[in-house]
Specification:
The structure holds two protein chains of two kinds. By secondary structure, chain A is mainly α. Chain A has two domains: about 140 residues, Rossmann fold (3-Layer(aba) Sandwich), CATH 3.40.50; about 325 residues, Serine Threonine Protein Phosphatase 5, Tetratricopeptide repeat. The longest helix of chain A is centred in the middle third of the chain and has 18 residues. Chain B is an alpha/beta fold. Chain B has three domains: about 90 residues, Helicase, Ruva Protein, domain 3 (Orthogonal Bundle), CATH 1.10.8; about 220 residues, 3-Layer(aba) Sandwich (Rossmann fold); about 50 residues, no CATH class. Helix content of chain B is about 55%, strand content about 10%. In chain B, α5 runs antiparallel to α8, α5 packs across α9 and α13 runs antiparallel to α14. Classes of the chains: A mainly alpha, B alpha/beta. The interface between A and B is large, with 40 and 34 residues.
Chain lengths: ~500, ~425
């Protein structure tokens, strides 16, 4: 090779541990070398500012560079027209998070200036900005010399799918939940009628589920199931199969969850209970999603959605819209994901179910984060957190903590990120959510990777790996572990 | 710019800017196929033989070579007989563009030419300056101040128009009632210049298709076409081709003397079954002018052509494939690098398109027509604007299709 390659020169230094897209960076360096003294326009999509800055650092070691943080169109024009780049070999433009009309129009209308300046330009922006460029600044886009999409190994994102409980349940705040718990416990002592008792046991299970006490929830659902079996109530049995399945799913025991959902589905089909069938299909979809079988998940969600539509169940429709949105989110078809989340949000505005609302806000935040719109993401996370705290939804709170941790890591705020991940980890451990624990451990490992502490990183990844078996988190972990091993061997 | 003999030189030769200098034309310009020649020679003839000044619409898609062809027109016209004002609307603020600013700036351009070419009658000059200063609220002192800094009157006003929202506000308010006064003054200047120099003025207005929003361009042409034909000089307006898909186009077209199209050359027949060898050779020749054909495998070149079929997109794919091949340590570009470059772009487009866009693209793919339901629906026009849909012309007439790059996605979209 005729130029210094990042890959060849890492020699165990910082670059190696912090940059994932070495191939691409090498190609960019080659392009910049070749076009020194000429116009060139290389566009790079990078969502995480911290990652972007590390890449810029790498490039600055090789080229005399001038970095310009663009804010206004006028400023771009002035800079380009001045032709005074302080002797730099390359100009690096960093665009802001938000693609304002002023900036987009300036790029489109003054694209020639980038070539007239007779110096190669490298422009960094996030995915949301990139989409605006393609749609609204087509002439600038057409003028690119090349473009890249650079991404670190994606951090674990806590998307929250919506399980459909056997019996609809909603509440205003944690106080109400605790009051209902006391009432049910009181009634359980008094009531003799078995049928009534099953209802109380079921509701208690649900309350503990919302309180994040999964063992207690399981205990009550099992008791209810037993009573239903004694009563020969297939409907009641189906309901408790679903609820038990949900608890297993949250604990991360996916095969157990599938088994119980399957039992419920069979009974509901026998009874021709469409509501039940819809709920079962949606819940089965969630298991597939967590296993990383996205096509299967979509198929089940789609079937569930259709049934919910036939039944005219707004809540059912909203839940499945969210779940479908999550699959698109994971697949990074972000506009589609947002479209589904927004539709669900609109339906839920009429229904006013707070826990679903919290969940939707968190998911929308995730989409913005993936697009690189970090401040917008934070806004959504904060709203979700407020609702989750009001409701005492431990699972929700912990998920938001993970996601806020991700934003902080994107921004390069290692300690803050670590703080959020640790808070989340405590809650997940407390509730006993295996997969979420694994995901959070993996993210903590990422913090150490970025800090260059490979030993700690390896430790966290390995801890996570044993918990993540059979899920998509496991694949993410393998990639990280392989890379660490490769680097170790190099 | 010698023909590239290695991949580094090739990378630098695949630039997407329009051809401009003599040297660039000599080295890189490729004549379009005989059955679909450039309309520029004919346009030159029309202008040179015209008895009176005409107004033309020049239509073409983004990136199909319009600016290059207009640069050629500039070179082809007889300079002893014509004064050419080549003018891009991007000198104004395109995002806040209005027909009143346009006429104001056009008048200033002609005033500039007059100052250079002839000695203007004192009255005409004073009348024009007074009028312009009045409508832009510029004082005598301002003008003097800038003149001392070496900035001419027209450049000073144009700068203000381009940069200051306030100046645009003034001029628009004033011209609300006085637009015909302005056009009259513009015509006085034209007559004065043409009489004294014995040359005809030809104004080439480029980049009107760069108006960023469909609505902006429609407002400009469809609401003001009566005014656009009033200047007494030759004017060539670049016209955004997606606008011809608006039913209103048929009302506007006859007002102009002619609409000249730079057609998009299809690389396949309408049914997609036959390759259009002549057009493929045109694209091959573009590459051949820029680099030694030994630097690319033949099937790789064909793949790049058939998957893009649009000059600027083709060139950027070639550039990306070139750097990839160089990085892979190859002597020549292979199908692998072309494939990767295509796939990268395809994925990006796929992510950017909304569901409504994809649905409409599938309709276009099936019917080979791009129509919007009514004037309020601009989906098809948006797609044509962003070049994800294209109109072609060949012996089968005019027909539309989706960007060839997106064809591998059709099955996936259908399933979704």
């Amino acid at each position: 090779m005729r130029y210094k390659s990042v890959i060849e020169t890492i020699s165990g230094e910082m670059e190696e541990s912090v940059i994932d897209d070495l191939e691409e960076i090498d190609t960019i360096i080659a392009e910049l070398e070749i076009s020194k003294g000429k116009g060139n326009l290389i566009l790079c999509v990078v969502n995480s500012p911290a990652y972007r800055d590390r890449i810029i650092q790498t490039l600055r070691r090789r080229f005399l560079s001038k970095v310009i943080l663009a804010e206004k169109g006028e400023q771009i024009i002035r800079n380009l027209k001045s032709r005074d780049f302080g002797g730099a070999d390359i100009l690096i433009w960093v665009m802001p998070e938000e693609p304002t009309e002023d900036l987009i129009n300036t790029l489109n209308n003054f694209r020639e200036l980038f070539y007239e300046a007779k110096i190669p330009h490298l422009m960094y922006y996030n995915q949301a900005f990139s989409e605006s460029v393609i749609r609204k600044a087509p002439d600038f886009w057409r003028y690119r010399g090349n473009y890249y999409e650079l991404r670190e190994a994606e951090r674990g994102i806590a998307f929250e799918a919506i399980e459909t409980l056997a019996t609809p349940f909603s509440y205003q705040d944690k106080d109400e939940l605790l009051r209902r718990k006391r009432i049910n416990e009181y009634l359980l002592e008094k009531v003799r009628d078995k049928e009534e008792k099953t209802k109380i046991l079921g509701e208690l299970g649900t309350i503990f589920y919302y309180l994040g006490d999964l063992e207690k929830a399981l205990e009550y659902f099992r008791k209810a199931l037993k009573l239903n079996e004694e009563l020969g109530s297939k409907e009641g049995m189906a309901a408790n199969f679903v609820n038990i399945g949900i608890v297993y799913r949250i604990k991360g025991e996916l095969d157990n969850a599938l088994e119980y959902y399957g039992k419920a589905l069979k009974l509901n089909e026998e009874l021709e209970r469409k509501e039940g069938i819809a709920a079962d299909l949606g819940n089965i979809g969630i298991v597939y999603q967590i296993k990383g079988e996205l096509a299967n998940a979509l198929e089940y969600y789609g079937k569930a959605l259709k049934l919910a539509e036939v039944l005219g169940s707004k809540e059912g429709i909203a839940n499945q819209l969210v779940n479908i949105g999550i699959v698109y989110g994971i697949k990074e078809e972000l506009d589609k994901a947002l479209e589904y989340f927004r539709k669900a949000l609109k339906l839920n505005e009429d229904l006013g179910i707070k826990e679903v609302l919290a969940n939707q806000l968190g998911n929308i935040g995730n989409v913005y984060r993936i697009k690189g719109e970090l401040d917008k993401a934070l806004e959504y996370y904060e709203k979700a957190l407020e609702l989750d705290e009001e409701l005492g939804r431990k699972e929700g709170i912990a998920s938001v903590f993970v996601n806020i941790g991700n934003v902080n890591l994107d921004k390069g705020e290692h300690e803050k990120a670590l703080g959020y991940y640790e808070k989340a980890l405590r809650i997940f451990k407390d509730v006993g959510m295996r997969i979420e624990i694994a995901l959070t451990l993996m993210n903590i490992g990422d913090v150490f990777t970025q800090k260059g502490d490979k030993e700690q990183a390896l430790d966290y990844y390995q801890k996570a790996e044993s918990l993540a078996v059979g899920t998509s988190v496991c694949d993410d972990l393998s990639k990280r572990l392989n890379r660490l091993k490769e680097e170790h061997n190099a | 710019m010698p023909k590239a003999r290695n991949l580094i030189e090739a990378y630098n030769n695949f630039v997407v800017e329009p051809l401009k200098t003599e040297e660039e034309f000599k080295d890189f310009y490729v004549e379009r196929p005989k059955n679909a020649p450039s309309p520029i020679e004919e346009l030159r003839d029309r202008i040179e033989y015209a008895e009176s000044a005409k107004k033309y619409l020049f239509l073409g898609f983004r990136g199909c070579g319009k600016s290059t062809e207009l640069n050629r027109l500039f070179k082809l016209l007889d300079k002893d007989r014509f004064l050419i004002v080549s003018y891009s609307i991007r000198e104004l603020d395109v995002s806040d563009f209005d027909f009143r600013d346009f006429f104001g700036s056009m008048a200033l351009k002609i005033y500039d030419i007059a100052e250079k070419e002839i000695k203007l009658e004192k009255d005409i000059k004073e009348d024009f300056l007074d009028f312009m200063m009045h409508i832009t609220k510029v004082s005598e002192e301002d003008v003097t101040k800038y003149r001392e800094m070496g900035i001419s009157f027209s450049n000073f006003i144009l700068l203000k128009l381009g940069r200051e929202a306030k100046t645009r506000e003034y001029i628009r308010k004033e011209l609300e009632m006085k637009i015909s006064d302005l056009i009259q003054k513009l015509n006085w200047l034209t007559m004065e210049v043409e009489t004294k120099s014995s040359k005809r003025i030809v104004v080439i207005v480029d980049d009107l298709d760069k108006l960023t929003r469909v609505g902006q361009a429609e407002d400009f042409f469809y609401k003001n076409y009566g005014l656009l034909i009033q200047p007494t000089c030759f004017v060539i307006y670049t016209f955004p081709i997606p606008l011809t898909f608006n039913p209103y186009y048929e009302n506007v077209r006859p007002a102009f003397n002619d609409d000249i199209i730079l057609p998009q050359l299809p690389v396949k027949s309408k049914d997609g079954k036959r390759l259009n060898v002549r057009n493929i050779n045109f694209y091959k020749e573009i590459v051949e002018k820029r680099m030694d054909l030994d630097l690319i495998e033949e099937n790789a070149l064909e793949e790049a052509i058939v998957s893009t079929g649009k000059t600027s997109e083709f060139i950027s794919i070639m550039r990306d494939a070139t750097i990839k091949a160089y990085r892979n340590g190859r002597e020549k570009i292979t199908k692998e690098e072309v494939g990767k470059a295509l796939e990268k772009l395809r994925r990006t487009y796929d992510r950017t398109l909304t569901e409504a866009h994809k649905k409409r693209l599938l309709e276009i793919y099936d019917t080979k027509e791009a129509r919007d339901d009514d004037t309020s629906d601009s989906t098809s026009r948006d797609l044509l604007f962003s070049l994800t849909a294209v109109e072609y012309e060949d012996e089968e007439g005019r027909w539309c299709d989706i960007n060839p790059l997106l064809k591998p996605l059709v099955e996936k979209w259908k399933k979704a």
